[in-house]
């Protein structure tokens, strides 16, 4: 694992525009990691102790569907956040994730970041705003996929 600096974090789209002080605090809880293709990062229902910002590669998000097994619900890639369950009690993953390709990412210790957010409410607010945007975007995408899958052809608003 390679140490991460505020300058390297500043270049990631998810963190772009955050203050140097906030990035420095986050860098203390981060490391640079690599995963080979097909590596399972976490399972639905497991303890959410980490999260990642993808630098390159793709990760498939999946759910275990009774009678169907593991079903990919979405694939995310460079510049995206992987994992938000670490932020909300009971800190259990709401889905699974597997590297679809080789992946490079910044990995964050979730407990350390939560502690830093408590100590610095402005940092907590900034991260919450950014994560909320990700959740809203993924919810909209899921809604569109469900409507498309059902064959419903009305406007998707």
Write a structural description.
This protein is an alpha+beta fold. The chain has one domain: Jelly Rolls (Sandwich), CATH 2.60.120.10. It has four helices and nine strands. The strands form two sheets. Strands 1-2-9-4-7 form a five-stranded antiparallel β-sheet. Strand 5 and strand 6 form a beta hairpin. Helix 3 packs across helix 4. The radius of gyration is 16 Å and the shape is globular. The model has no long low-confidence stretch (mean pLDDT 91).
Shape: globular
Assigned CATH superfamily = Jelly Rolls
The residue ranges in which pLDDT falls below 50 over 5 or more consecutive positions are none
Estimate the helix proportion, in percent: 25-40%
CATH topology: Jelly Rolls
Strand content: 25-35%
List keywords for this structure.
29% strand, 4 helices, alpha+beta
What would you say about this model in short?
The chain is globular, with a radius of gyration of 16 Å. It has helices at 6-10, 20-27, 110-119, 121-150; strands at 2-3, 30-35, 40-42, 50-56, 59-65, 69-76, 81-82, 96-99, 103-109. The mean pLDDT is 91.
How would you summarize the topology of this molecule?
Layout: E1 2-3, H1 6-10, H2 20-27, E2 30-35, E3 40-42, E4 50-56, E5 59-65, E6 69-76, E7 81-82, E8 96-99, E9 103-109, H3 110-119, H4 121-150
Helix pairs in contact: 3-4
């Amino acid at each position: 694992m390679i140490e991460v600096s505020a300058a390297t974090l500043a270049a990631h789209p998810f963190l772009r525009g955050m203050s140097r002080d906030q990035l420095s605090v986050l860098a203390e809880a981060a490391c640079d990691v690599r995963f080979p293709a097909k590596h399972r990062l976490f399972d639905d229902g497991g303890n959410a102790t980490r999260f990642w910002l993808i630098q390159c590669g793709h990760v498939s998000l999946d759910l275990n569907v009774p009678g169907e097994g593991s079903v990919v619900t979405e694939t995310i890639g460079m510049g995206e956040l992987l994992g938000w369950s670490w932020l909300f009690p009971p800190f259990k993953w709401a889905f699974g994730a597997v590297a679809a390709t080789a992946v490079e990412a910044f990995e964050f210790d979730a407990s350390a970041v939560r502690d830093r957010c408590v100590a610095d409410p402005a940092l907590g607010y900034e991260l919450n705003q950014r994560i909320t945007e990700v959740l809203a975007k993924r919810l909209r995408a899921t809604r569109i996929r469900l409507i498309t899958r059902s064959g419903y052809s009305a406007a998707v608003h």
